[in-house]
Protein backbone atom coordinates (compact mmCIF):
# COMPACT_ATOMS: atom_id res chain seq x y z
CA UNK A 1 0.00 0.00 0.00
CA UNK A 2 1.25 3.47 -0.79
CA UNK A 3 1.99 5.76 2.13
CA UNK A 4 0.22 9.02 1.29
CA UNK A 5 2.61 10.97 3.51
CA UNK A 6 5.59 9.92 1.43
CA UNK A 7 3.92 9.80 -1.93
CA UNK A 8 4.39 13.45 -2.93
CA UNK A 9 3.07 13.21 -6.47
CA UNK A 10 -0.48 11.98 -6.58
CA UNK A 11 -2.38 11.65 -9.83
CA UNK A 12 -6.07 12.39 -9.87
CA UNK A 13 -8.61 11.69 -12.61
CA UNK A 14 -11.45 14.18 -12.86
CA UNK A 15 -14.34 12.90 -14.95
CA UNK A 16 -16.70 15.61 -16.05
CA UNK A 17 -20.29 14.90 -17.02
CA UNK A 18 -20.34 15.36 -20.78
CA UNK A 19 -21.17 13.40 -23.89
CA UNK A 20 -17.56 12.51 -24.67
CA UNK A 21 -15.30 10.33 -22.59
CA UNK A 22 -13.34 13.40 -21.39
CA UNK A 23 -11.06 13.53 -18.42
CA UNK A 24 -8.44 15.84 -17.00
CA UNK A 25 -5.35 14.65 -15.26
CA UNK A 26 -3.43 16.82 -12.91
CA UNK A 27 -0.94 16.52 -10.07
CA UNK A 28 -0.64 18.23 -6.75
CA UNK A 29 3.10 18.66 -6.95
CA UNK A 30 4.46 21.71 -5.22
CA UNK A 31 5.19 24.64 -7.52
CA UNK A 32 8.93 24.31 -6.84
CA UNK A 33 8.82 20.71 -8.08
CA UNK A 34 7.06 21.71 -11.28
CA UNK A 35 9.43 24.56 -12.13
CA UNK A 36 11.73 24.21 -15.08
CA UNK A 37 15.39 24.51 -14.18
CA UNK A 38 16.96 27.07 -16.45
CA UNK A 39 20.40 28.24 -17.44
CA UNK A 40 20.64 31.74 -16.00
CA UNK A 41 23.32 34.32 -16.79
CA UNK A 42 23.77 37.13 -14.27
CA UNK A 43 25.68 40.20 -15.40
CA UNK A 44 26.95 42.42 -12.61
CA UNK A 45 27.05 39.43 -10.28
CA UNK A 46 29.57 40.94 -7.87
CA UNK A 47 27.47 44.05 -7.28
CA UNK A 48 25.16 44.97 -4.42
CA UNK A 49 22.08 43.23 -5.79
CA UNK A 50 23.90 40.99 -8.28
CA UNK A 51 25.60 38.88 -5.62
CA UNK A 52 22.21 38.22 -4.07
CA UNK A 53 20.75 37.23 -7.43
CA UNK A 54 23.54 34.67 -7.87
CA UNK A 55 22.80 33.23 -4.44
CA UNK A 56 19.05 33.09 -5.06
CA UNK A 57 19.46 31.50 -8.49
CA UNK A 58 21.65 28.76 -7.04
CA UNK A 59 19.30 28.21 -4.10
CA UNK A 60 16.31 27.85 -6.44
CA UNK A 61 18.15 25.17 -8.39
CA UNK A 62 18.99 26.94 -11.62
CA UNK A 63 22.19 26.34 -13.55
CA UNK A 64 23.79 29.68 -12.81
CA UNK A 65 26.38 31.55 -14.86
CA UNK A 66 28.14 34.78 -13.91
CA UNK A 67 29.79 37.07 -16.43
CA UNK A 68 33.45 37.65 -15.59
CA UNK A 69 34.65 40.85 -17.21
CA UNK A 70 38.34 41.24 -18.12
CA UNK A 71 38.37 44.84 -16.85
CA UNK A 72 38.16 43.55 -13.27
CA UNK A 73 41.83 44.52 -12.94
CA UNK A 74 43.27 43.92 -9.47
CA UNK A 75 39.97 44.18 -7.59
CA UNK A 76 40.73 41.27 -5.27
CA UNK A 77 37.36 41.45 -3.52
CA UNK A 78 35.51 40.88 -6.80
CA UNK A 79 37.90 38.10 -7.84
CA UNK A 80 37.41 36.29 -4.54
CA UNK A 81 33.65 36.72 -4.81
CA UNK A 82 33.66 35.19 -8.28
CA UNK A 83 35.72 32.27 -7.01
CA UNK A 84 33.28 31.79 -4.14
CA UNK A 85 30.42 31.67 -6.66
CA UNK A 86 32.34 28.99 -8.55
CA UNK A 87 32.82 26.98 -5.35
CA UNK A 88 29.05 27.18 -4.75
CA UNK A 89 28.35 25.68 -8.17
CA UNK A 90 28.12 28.70 -10.49
CA UNK A 91 29.91 28.83 -13.83
CA UNK A 92 32.06 31.80 -14.80
CA UNK A 93 31.84 33.08 -18.37
CA UNK A 94 34.29 35.56 -19.86
CA UNK A 95 32.69 38.50 -21.58
CA UNK A 96 32.84 42.25 -21.98
CA UNK A 97 30.57 45.08 -23.05
CA UNK A 98 33.47 46.16 -25.25
CA UNK A 99 33.54 42.81 -27.06
CA UNK A 100 30.28 42.19 -28.91
CA UNK A 101 31.21 38.67 -29.95
CA UNK A 102 32.00 37.66 -26.35
CA UNK A 103 28.56 38.84 -25.23
CA UNK A 104 26.86 36.84 -27.97
CA UNK A 105 28.81 33.71 -27.07
CA UNK A 106 27.91 34.11 -23.38
CA UNK A 107 24.23 34.71 -24.14
CA UNK A 108 24.03 31.66 -26.44
CA UNK A 109 24.92 29.39 -23.52
CA UNK A 110 21.86 30.28 -21.41
CA UNK A 111 18.09 30.62 -21.38
CA UNK A 112 17.70 33.72 -19.21
CA UNK A 113 19.77 36.88 -18.81
CA UNK A 114 19.54 39.08 -15.72
CA UNK A 115 21.49 42.31 -15.72
CA UNK A 116 22.33 43.96 -12.40
CA UNK A 117 24.90 46.56 -13.39
CA UNK A 118 24.92 49.75 -11.36
CA UNK A 119 22.30 52.39 -12.00
CA UNK A 120 23.12 54.74 -9.13
CA UNK A 121 25.37 57.71 -9.68
CA UNK A 122 27.31 57.56 -6.42
CA UNK A 123 28.65 54.17 -7.54
CA UNK A 124 28.68 54.23 -11.33
CA UNK A 125 25.75 54.90 -13.62
CA UNK A 126 26.03 52.30 -16.39
CA UNK A 127 22.42 51.73 -17.42
CA UNK A 128 22.90 52.56 -21.11
CA UNK A 129 25.64 49.93 -21.43
CA UNK A 130 22.74 47.50 -21.58
CA UNK A 131 22.01 48.65 -25.12
CA UNK A 132 25.04 46.60 -26.17
CA UNK A 133 23.59 43.64 -24.29
CA UNK A 134 20.23 44.09 -26.03
CA UNK A 135 22.02 43.96 -29.40
CA UNK A 136 23.80 40.75 -28.38
CA UNK A 137 20.58 39.11 -27.14
CA UNK A 138 18.78 40.06 -30.34
CA UNK A 139 21.53 38.61 -32.50
CA UNK A 140 21.82 35.42 -30.44
CA UNK A 141 18.08 34.83 -30.77
CA UNK A 142 17.75 32.18 -28.08
CA UNK A 143 16.86 34.04 -24.88
CA UNK A 144 13.57 33.11 -23.24
CA UNK A 145 13.60 36.03 -20.79
CA UNK A 146 15.64 39.17 -20.18
CA UNK A 147 15.50 41.11 -16.93
CA UNK A 148 17.30 44.44 -17.32
CA UNK A 149 18.86 46.36 -14.45
CA UNK A 150 15.94 48.12 -12.79
CA UNK A 151 15.07 46.92 -9.25
CA UNK A 152 13.98 50.36 -8.00
CA UNK A 153 11.20 52.79 -8.83
CA UNK A 154 9.18 51.93 -11.94
CA UNK A 155 10.67 54.33 -14.53
CA UNK A 156 7.50 54.31 -16.62
CA UNK A 157 5.77 56.22 -13.82
CA UNK A 158 8.53 58.81 -13.37
CA UNK A 159 8.10 61.05 -16.40
CA UNK A 160 7.57 64.02 -14.08
CA UNK A 161 10.41 63.14 -11.69
CA UNK A 162 12.59 65.96 -10.47
CA UNK A 163 15.81 66.82 -12.27
CA UNK A 164 18.60 65.79 -12.23
CA UNK A 165 17.49 62.47 -10.69
CA UNK A 166 15.13 61.88 -13.59
CA UNK A 167 18.10 60.85 -15.77
CA UNK A 168 18.13 57.42 -14.11
CA UNK A 169 14.51 56.80 -15.11
CA UNK A 170 14.93 58.24 -18.60
CA UNK A 171 17.91 55.95 -19.28
CA UNK A 172 15.97 52.91 -18.09
CA UNK A 173 13.14 53.82 -20.46
CA UNK A 174 15.63 54.01 -23.34
CA UNK A 175 16.69 50.46 -22.52
CA UNK A 176 13.07 49.30 -22.24
CA UNK A 177 12.26 50.72 -25.67
CA UNK A 178 15.26 48.91 -27.19
CA UNK A 179 14.17 45.62 -25.59
CA UNK A 180 10.62 45.91 -26.82
CA UNK A 181 11.60 47.14 -30.29
CA UNK A 182 13.87 44.08 -30.59
CA UNK A 183 11.02 41.74 -29.61
CA UNK A 184 12.97 40.30 -26.67
CA UNK A 185 10.84 38.55 -23.99
CA UNK A 186 11.23 40.53 -20.77
CA UNK A 187 10.27 41.00 -17.15
CA UNK A 188 10.77 44.33 -15.37
CA UNK A 189 11.20 44.21 -11.59
CA UNK A 190 10.25 47.27 -9.54
CA UNK A 191 11.65 46.61 -6.06
CA UNK A 192 11.10 50.10 -4.62
CA UNK A 193 13.45 50.92 -1.68
CA UNK A 194 16.31 48.64 -0.69
CA UNK A 195 16.08 48.25 3.08
CA UNK A 196 19.81 48.62 3.63
CA UNK A 197 19.95 52.06 2.06
CA UNK A 198 16.72 53.42 3.47
CA UNK A 199 15.55 51.62 6.60
CA UNK A 200 19.02 51.32 8.13
CA UNK A 201 19.30 55.11 8.25
CA UNK A 202 15.65 55.67 9.19
CA UNK A 203 15.04 57.08 5.69
CA UNK A 204 17.47 59.98 6.14
CA UNK A 205 19.75 60.88 3.22
CA UNK A 206 23.39 60.19 4.00
CA UNK A 207 22.65 57.75 6.82
CA UNK A 208 22.77 53.94 6.75
CA UNK A 209 22.82 53.29 10.52
CA UNK A 210 19.94 54.19 12.85
CA UNK A 211 20.57 56.73 15.56
CA UNK A 212 19.47 56.06 19.13
CA UNK A 213 19.23 59.80 19.81
CA UNK A 214 17.57 61.79 17.04
CA UNK A 215 16.03 61.72 13.58
CA UNK A 216 15.09 64.24 10.88
CA UNK A 217 11.67 63.61 9.37
CA UNK A 218 11.18 64.59 5.74
CA UNK A 219 8.09 66.76 5.44
CA UNK A 220 5.62 65.50 8.01
CA UNK A 221 7.07 61.98 7.76
CA UNK A 222 3.76 60.51 6.69
CA UNK A 223 4.26 59.76 2.98
CA UNK A 224 4.05 56.02 2.42
CA UNK A 225 6.98 54.21 0.81
CA UNK A 226 7.80 50.53 0.23
CA UNK A 227 10.84 48.80 1.69
CA UNK A 228 12.20 45.38 0.72
CA UNK A 229 15.06 43.33 2.12
CA UNK A 230 17.64 42.93 -0.63
CA UNK A 231 17.71 39.13 -0.26
CA UNK A 232 13.94 39.12 -0.77
CA UNK A 233 14.35 41.26 -3.89
CA UNK A 234 16.61 38.56 -5.30
CA UNK A 235 14.35 35.69 -4.27
CA UNK A 236 11.27 37.26 -5.86
CA UNK A 237 13.23 38.15 -9.00
CA UNK A 238 14.42 34.59 -9.58
CA UNK A 239 10.88 33.31 -9.03
CA UNK A 240 9.69 35.32 -12.03
CA UNK A 241 12.10 33.98 -14.64
CA UNK A 242 10.16 30.81 -15.52
CA UNK A 243 6.68 32.03 -14.63
CA UNK A 244 4.44 32.58 -17.69
CA UNK A 245 2.37 35.05 -15.64
CA UNK A 246 5.32 37.47 -15.56
CA UNK A 247 6.19 37.37 -19.26
CA UNK A 248 6.38 40.86 -20.78
CA UNK A 249 5.13 42.45 -17.57
CA UNK A 250 6.27 44.74 -14.77
CA UNK A 251 6.43 43.02 -11.40
CA UNK A 252 6.05 45.22 -8.35
CA UNK A 253 7.44 44.16 -4.98
CA UNK A 254 4.94 45.45 -2.42
CA UNK A 255 5.04 43.28 0.70
CA UNK A 256 1.98 44.53 2.59
CA UNK A 257 3.65 44.81 6.00
CA UNK A 258 6.46 46.89 4.48
CA UNK A 259 4.32 49.71 3.09
CA UNK A 260 5.35 52.26 5.68
CA UNK A 261 5.91 55.95 6.17
CA UNK A 262 9.20 57.30 7.49
CA UNK A 263 7.45 58.05 10.77
CA UNK A 264 6.29 54.43 11.02
CA UNK A 265 9.84 53.17 10.37
CA UNK A 266 11.05 55.42 13.19
CA UNK A 267 8.32 54.10 15.48
CA UNK A 268 9.44 50.51 14.80
CA UNK A 269 12.97 51.47 15.82
CA UNK A 270 11.78 53.31 18.91
CA UNK A 271 9.84 50.23 19.95
CA UNK A 272 12.97 48.08 19.60
CA UNK A 273 15.27 50.41 21.56
CA UNK A 274 12.64 51.26 24.16
CA UNK A 275 12.87 55.04 23.85
CA UNK A 276 11.66 57.93 21.72
CA UNK A 277 14.04 59.80 19.45
CA UNK A 278 14.30 63.56 19.36
CA UNK A 279 12.54 64.60 16.17
CA UNK A 280 12.98 67.56 13.88
CA UNK A 281 11.22 68.23 10.59
CA UNK A 282 12.62 69.31 7.23
CA UNK A 283 9.92 71.02 5.20
CA UNK A 284 9.77 70.71 1.42
CA UNK A 285 11.14 74.19 0.74
CA UNK A 286 14.10 73.67 3.07
CA UNK A 287 14.88 70.35 1.41
CA UNK A 288 14.81 71.90 -2.06
CA UNK A 289 17.06 74.74 -0.93
CA UNK A 290 19.52 72.24 0.52
CA UNK A 291 19.73 70.36 -2.80
CA UNK A 292 20.85 73.48 -4.69
CA UNK A 293 24.13 73.62 -2.77
CA UNK A 294 25.13 70.04 -3.59
CA UNK A 295 27.17 68.57 -6.44
CA UNK A 296 25.56 66.75 -9.36
CA UNK A 297 25.94 63.20 -8.04
CA UNK A 298 24.50 64.09 -4.65
CA UNK A 299 21.66 66.04 -6.28
CA UNK A 300 20.66 62.94 -8.24
CA UNK A 301 20.30 60.91 -5.04
CA UNK A 302 18.54 63.66 -3.10
CA UNK A 303 15.95 64.24 -5.80
CA UNK A 304 15.05 60.55 -5.53
CA UNK A 305 14.42 61.12 -1.81
CA UNK A 306 12.26 64.07 -2.78
CA UNK A 307 10.16 61.99 -5.18
CA UNK A 308 9.71 59.25 -2.57
CA UNK A 309 9.25 61.08 0.74
CA UNK A 310 7.70 64.37 -0.37
CA UNK A 311 5.80 63.33 -3.50
CA UNK A 312 4.93 59.78 -2.41
CA UNK A 313 5.70 58.30 -5.83
CA UNK A 314 5.96 54.66 -4.70
CA UNK A 315 2.60 54.03 -3.05
CA UNK A 316 0.27 56.62 -4.57
CA UNK A 317 -1.17 54.29 -7.21
CA UNK A 318 -2.94 50.95 -7.45
CA UNK A 319 -1.43 47.95 -9.22
CA UNK A 320 -3.90 46.98 -11.91
CA UNK A 321 -3.85 46.16 -15.59
CA UNK A 322 -2.88 43.31 -17.87
CA UNK A 323 0.82 44.19 -17.89
CA UNK A 324 1.52 44.33 -14.15
CA UNK A 325 1.61 41.88 -11.22
CA UNK A 326 2.53 42.03 -7.52
CA UNK A 327 5.17 39.60 -6.31
CA UNK A 328 4.22 38.93 -2.69
CA UNK A 329 0.71 38.00 -3.83
CA UNK A 330 2.04 35.72 -6.58
CA UNK A 331 4.62 33.98 -4.39
CA UNK A 332 3.22 33.60 -0.86
CA UNK A 333 5.76 30.83 -0.20
CA UNK A 334 8.44 33.51 0.16
CA UNK A 335 8.35 34.60 3.78
CA UNK A 336 9.56 38.11 3.33
CA UNK A 337 11.42 40.04 6.00
CA UNK A 338 9.32 42.62 7.82
CA UNK A 339 11.07 45.87 8.60
CA UNK A 340 10.76 45.46 12.37
CA UNK A 341 12.73 42.23 12.04
CA UNK A 342 15.16 43.89 9.63
CA UNK A 343 15.89 46.62 12.19
CA UNK A 344 16.73 44.08 14.92
CA UNK A 345 20.17 43.53 13.41
CA UNK A 346 21.16 47.06 14.43
CA UNK A 347 20.50 46.48 18.13
From TrEMBL:
Keywords: NADP, Oxidoreductase. InterPro entries: NAD(P)-bd_dom_sf, NmrA-like, NmrA-type/Isoflavone_red_sf, PCBER-like. It comes from the Eukaryota. Pfam families: NmrA. Its EC number is 1.23.1.1, 1.23.1.2. GO terms for biological process: (+)-pinoresinol catabolic process; (-)-secoisolariciresinol biosynthetic process. GO terms for molecular function: lariciresinol reductase activity; pinoresinol reductase activity. Residues 37-343 form the NmrA-like domain. Dimer. Belongs to the NmrA-type oxidoreductase family. Isoflavone reductase subfamily. This is (+)-lariciresinol reductase. It comes from Centaurea solstitialis (yellow star-thistle). The lineage of its organism: Eukaryota, Viridiplantae, Streptophyta, Embryophyta, Tracheophyta.
Amino acid sequence: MLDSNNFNTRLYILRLPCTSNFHIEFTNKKHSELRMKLKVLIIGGTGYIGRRLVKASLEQGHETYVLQRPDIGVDIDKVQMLLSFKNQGAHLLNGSFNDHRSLIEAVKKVDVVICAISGVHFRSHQILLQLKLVDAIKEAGNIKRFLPSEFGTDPSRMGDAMEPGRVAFDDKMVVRKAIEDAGIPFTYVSANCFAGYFVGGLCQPGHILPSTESVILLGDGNQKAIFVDEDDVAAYTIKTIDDPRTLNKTIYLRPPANILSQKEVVQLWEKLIGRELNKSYLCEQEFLSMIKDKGYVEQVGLTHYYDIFYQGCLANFEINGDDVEEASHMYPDIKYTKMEDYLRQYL
